[in-house]
Amino acid sequence: MNSKKGPADAKSDEEMDNGKGAFVTGQYPNLLERYGHAQEEIEARLADAWRRLFGDDERTRIYYPSGDDMGYMLDTGNLDVRTEGMSYGMMMAVQMDDKALFDRLWRWTWTYMHMNEGVHAGYFAWSCAPDGTRNSSGPAPDGEEYFALALFFAAHRWGEGDPPLDYAAKARDILRACLHNGEQGPGYPMWNRDNRLIKFVPECAYSDPSYHLPHFYELFALWADEADRPFWREAAAASRAYLPLACHPETGLAPEYAYYDGTPNDERGYGHFYSDAYRVAANVGLEAAWFGATPWMAREAEAILRFFADKDPADYRRYRIDGTPFEEPALHPVGLVASNACAALAAPDSPHAREAVALFWRTPVREGERRYYDNCLYMFALLALSGRYRIWMPAA
Ligand SMILES: O[C@@H]1[C@@H](O)[C@H](O[C@@H]2CO[C@@H](O[C@@H]3CO[C@@H](O)[C@H](O)[C@H]3O)[C@H](O)[C@H]2O)OC[C@H]1O
């Protein structure tokens, strides 16, 4: 891996796709400051959002302590606990250097969600009730990928502890299951071993564009089992090649689910730009902050920013990826505002980047029943736009 190459030094798409690995910048753009906010103001906003999400404000909280040493993130709209939310909470906690919170979330996850046996052994049940009862024995791969990276970062910030706080060992176990389940008995890998694309669920043959995190896979290529490192490097390249196929060239919108050739998958009625898909903009933004933007990433960010520039969040809808609106309103407009703002990291000079970030800055965290997903995307956006969403490397 090369180092000290900043986001300004945009790489060609080929350079990112050649399987040789991306660049660690070691520097994180603070777009909020660049766009005129004082550092104290930014810190205050971060602290306030953190309090609202993880404190005891019943209007905005999404975290609930449980017993002496556990806690969970509640999907307040569905009244369940999801691997998505638990892994997001862990990623937020490690970025904010809150080990106590991280450990509470991980203990809950390990106790109630981790599966030791059955066809999905080594994975985590994607949805549980707040008392820990499983609602499903199936996993959702976006949880596993976030768990793995959050655990590596925890190991690098705080060191390995006793099981289950042996973070890096657990991260490697998860990634091993993700690639090798099914090789010696029943089960399915979470990545298609031939095309190297992440699946929507292990037993299906299609993908969810918002699950593609090439910037995570570059780091798995450094820290996973040695034998699997080449796969992770290739998975990063495969995802970078896949996203341009899945995202509409004019609007930048991705469908929730897509086939391996990128075409929207309407089989289950989710081949449109809806909740899951909002994360593509945030992912592109974070990848740009970490490793720089390829020309495609900059074009993709510009397209999304342009598409939403003349739209009022109160009127956000479900859209076909060509931009045709449905009557149905967006379920998570605050999350969409937040993710769109992140896209500015890949195109900071685009004419709509400042407006998107200003809109986010004017938007408060969400209150009410549907707040969980919005507020997760909100916190990630605040971290990314302030240069506080970072790669934690192993101590030298
Ligand atoms: O069928 C399930 C499938 O639903 C599950 O996917 C997880 C849940 O949906 C995704 O995020 C949701 C986006 O919409 C918001 O309204 C929800 O609050 C979010 O949770 C999430 O990324 C997936 O992990 O995966 C397993 C399948 O069996």
Automatic annotation (TrEMBL):
Basic and acidic residues composition bias: residue spans: 1-13
Q: Name one Pfam family in it.
A: Glyco_hydro_8
Molecular function in Gene Ontology: hydrolase activity, hydrolyzing O-glycosyl compounds
Keyword entries, A-Z: Glycosidase, Hydrolase
Where on the tree of life does the source sit, at the highest rank? Answer: Bacteria
Which chain positions lie within coiled-coil regions? Answer: none
Q: Where is this region: Disordered?
A: 1-20
Keyword Cytoplasm in record: no
Q: What is this protein called?
A: Glycosyl hydrolase family 8
